[in-house]
């Protein structure tokens, strides 16, 4: 039972780092088995996983469980997916997370600890070993989460909600998205991702019809 695809390496890298189509990067936000890694893809994908963590946190409330976080991360690549309207199992995200919870934990726990060390999160364990997460929902914390999103996403958000010039640690001028509130940032980002997923899912649906036909080639 395998799924496979063919993609040019530069397209793969662009999607991992920039969420250009939000298709390969969405697949790599879920547990996968990398058989051969000539590009050091696993380390490169850490940027994608950190960005996915930030995106999910923007969409989550002030308090949630570890499973809620992984479900939100998993759902990013299904937002706006046309196939979810008629072809996919409505409980697909829940089944993916519950069936591979330990793998999601291994992938994303380092980022939870990183964000906790930056005082963006507070982690607490209950008796059932489920971690409860509390996050800062202020605009300053939201701005830090947005700063971890891929540059093209930040740029598109800046066009929608505005940008300002700031100096980075090296004294260089850079653009920063103006964050009025966490809710505003989340709504803007969600709309951008939904549009990307909708376009990619439409391409996949058309490709599927061309490959197997309307009736599955039966």
UniProtKB/TrEMBL annotation:
Taxonomic superkingdom: Eukaryota
Cofactor annotation: Mg(2+)
Annotated membrane topology: Peripheral membrane protein
InterPro entries: Tam41
Segments crossing the lipid bilayer: none
Annotated keywords: Lipid biosynthesis, Lipid metabolism, Magnesium, Membrane, Mitochondrion, Mitochondrion inner membrane, Nucleotidyltransferase, Phospholipid biosynthesis, Phospholipid metabolism, Transferase
Signal sequence region: none
Stated name of the protein: Phosphatidate cytidylyltransferase, mitochondrial
Source species of the chain: Coffea arabica
């Amino acid at each position: 039972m395998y799924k496979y695809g063919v993609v040019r390496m530069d397209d793969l890298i662009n999607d991992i780092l920039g969420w250009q189509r939000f298709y390969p990067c969405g697949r790599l936000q879920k547990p996968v088995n990398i058989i051969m890694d000539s590009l050091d893809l696993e380390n490169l994908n850490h940027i994608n996983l950190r960005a996915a963590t930030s995106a999910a946190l923007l969409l989550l409330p002030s308090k949630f469980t570890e499973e809620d976080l992984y479900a939100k991360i998993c759902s990013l690549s299904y937002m706006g997916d046309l196939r979810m309207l008629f072809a996919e199992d409505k409980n697909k995200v829940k089944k993916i997370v519950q069936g591979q919870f330990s793998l999601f934990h291994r992938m994303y726990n380092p980022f939870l600890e990183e964000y906790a060390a930056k005082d963006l999160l507070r982690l607490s364990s209950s008796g059932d070993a489920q971690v409860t997460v509390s996050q800062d929902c202020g605009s300053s914390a939201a701005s830090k989460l947005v700063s971890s999103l891929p540059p093209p996403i930040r740029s598109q958000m800046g066009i929608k909600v505005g940008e300002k010039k700031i100096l980075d640690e090296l004294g260089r001028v850079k653009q920063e998205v103006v964050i009025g509130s966490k809710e505003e940032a989340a709504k803007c980002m969600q709309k951008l991702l939904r549009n990307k997923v909708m376009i990619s899912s439409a391409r996949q649906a058309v490709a599927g019809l061309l490959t197997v036909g309307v009736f599955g080639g039966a």
